[in-house]
Design brief:
Layout (H helix, E strand, L loop, with lengths): L9 H12 L5 E5 L12 E5 L3 H6 L1 H4 L7 H16 L3 H9 L4 E4 L3 H11 L3 E5 L20 H31 L6 H10 L4 E3 L16 E3 L13 H8 L5 E4 L8 H14 L4 E4 L12 E4 L4 H4 L5 E4 L3 H10 L3 E3 L6 H10 L14 H13 L1 H15 L5 H12 L1
Parallel strand pairs: 1-2, 3-4, 4-5, 5-6, 7-8, 7-10, 8-9, 10-11
């Protein structure tokens, strides 16, 4: 069970496909707009309402750009999520009633855990972000700046409070439907923590080491790579074959206030750096034209990124992972939420020359970053070394073992 943008869904298509090969009957429960992501995987699909793309382009979604701080954006997105949380309940309940075990993404933990309690089902968490409070770093949803050990943990508890705000009404109603006694989300969370409810994190310990102060049962297992098949479209292959490896530029599911202006800055940067470009429209609506530029819609990153000289992206968790897997340098352009966190990891690991937040992006600044990323072979060498380490990790085996443990009793 997962909800959110494509990056919150795609990793579970690959995890689900691997579990199907291991003998499980797997259903992916998420927004209807992502149904095609499971094609050919053997994973069943159960559709949920709410169109996250429409929400991001709504007045509420666009209001996120009016907040300049991580805390401000968190408050606004909490309000947006609270408004739609209850709409997911019916679909989640119907899917759970046909299941033997629930694997719940971080975005749906309060609802998924309530369903497991009410239906008497074993469950475990499968998170794409490190959301549990820790002294080591501040919550990714609030940005990348450390607040110190005590401040980091306090910020983590504040994020927990925001999650409770989002789901309190929906969980209260669901508990009543399931015949469960009233209970606060904070109390339910404390019980899960005391019971060491298993949570497996789908990112690599090479990229974010497991915090030393996490409780037992919180494991970092590695990336779950999206299910991707086929080949690149012929027009993309023709462009790639027509010249030197280009630079990918895309912002995934992020939206921007002025897509035309940003597209112009991207074009000026690529040409100033003497580089060809593949521009992905994405939810931001980027667009560019010319013999040295190709604008594409959805193209599997796993097939495209290894052919790039560098990737410019918003540093969402999924796109960051795809770039690391491909072993190519990055220029992260974080916009909001956890993106600054993942961007800072790319810089710290030597796979990116700098972080270039959207608010600071100019054609000149992007051109300079691209010259460094593509001209210094050290960035590609370090990115390639990281990719080799990621390729050696088994992120599915621990999930299989966890499912067997929680169902054994």
């Amino acid at each position: 069970m997962t909800a959110g943008s494509r990056g919150d869904v795609a990793p579970f298509t690959g995890l689900g496909a691997a579990l199907v090969r291991a003998g499980y009957d797997v259903t992916l429960v998420t927004h209807a707009m992502f149904d095609s992501l499971t094609d050919g995987s053997g994973v069943r699909f159960h559709a949920l309402p709410v169109d996250p793309r429409a929400e991001s382009h709504s007045a509420r979604g666009q209001a996120l750009h009016r907040s300049s701080s991580g805390a401000g954006k968190l408050l606004r997105v909490a309000g947006l999520a609270k408004a739609v949380a209850g709409e997911l309940t019916d679909g989640l309940l119907k899917a759970a009633e046909d299941s033997d075990v629930l694997v719940v993404a971080g975005s749906l933990t309060p609802l998924g855990a309530t369903l497991a309690e009410g239906l008497g089902l074993p469950s475990l968490g499968a998170h794409l972000q490190p959301v549990h409070p820790t002294r080591v770093f501040a919550p990714p949803m609030t940005g990348s700046r450390s607040l110190g050990p005590l401040g980091n943990r306090a910020a983590g508890r504040a994020v927990d409070a925001a999650i409770a705000y989002i789901f309190t009404d929906a969980v209260r109603d669901l508990r009543a439907r399931l015949g469960l006694p009233p209970r606060t989300l904070a109390a339910a969370r404390r019980d899960r923590e005391r019971a060491h409810w298993p949570v497996l994190h789908g990112f690599s310990p090479t990229i974010v080491p497991r915090p030393h102060d996490w409780r037992p049962g919180l494991d970092v297992v590695g990336y779950w790579w999206p299910h991707e098949t086929g080949r690149l479209p012929a027009y993309v292959e023709e462009f790639l074959d027509a010249g030197a490896p280009p630079v990918f530029v895309g912002l995934g599911s992020a939206t921007v206030p002025h897509p035309e202006r940003l597209s112009g800055q991207v074009v000026r940067a690529l040409r100033a750096a003497g580089l060809r470009g593949v521009i992905q429209r994405g939810w931001a609506g980027l667009d560019a034209s010319g013999d040295d530029l190709l604008t594409v819609d959805d193209v599997p990153h796993g097939l495209l990124f290894p052919r790039m000289a560098a990737v410019v992206h918003h540093a969402g968790a999924g796109t960051t992972a795809a770039g690391l897997r491909a072993g190519v340098p990055a220029v992260p352009v974080p916009i909001q939420f956890d993106e600054a966190f993942w961007a800072s990891r790319l810089v710290a690991l030597g796979a990116a020359p700098r972080t270039l937040p959207l608010r600071s992006l100019t054609g000149g600044a992007l051109a300079a970053a691209l010259v460094r990323a593509t001209g210094d072979p050290g960035y590609r060498a370090r990115a390639r070394a990281l990719a080799d380490r990621l390729a050696a990790e088994d992120a599915v085996g621990p999930v299989d073992a966890a499912i067997r443990r929680v169902t054994a009793g």
